[in-house]
Amino acid sequence: MSGVKLITHHLINELIGEIKQASSIYILTSFVMKSGVRLLQPHLKEALNRNADVK
Q1: Can you state the angle between helices 11-21 and 34-49, rounded to 10 degrees?
Q2: Average pLDDT, stretch 13-24?
């Protein structure tokens, strides 16, 4: 399982770093908080502007 890692702290930093590089982004979650969406929103919009597939 190469590329798999356990993230226990600063998940937002890991997500933003991956979003900046991704050509496809799929987000699946059982719950979400508005504060978390606000943190990711500008980075997801940036991804859309560079034609990444965001779902």
Answers
A1: 20
A2: 95
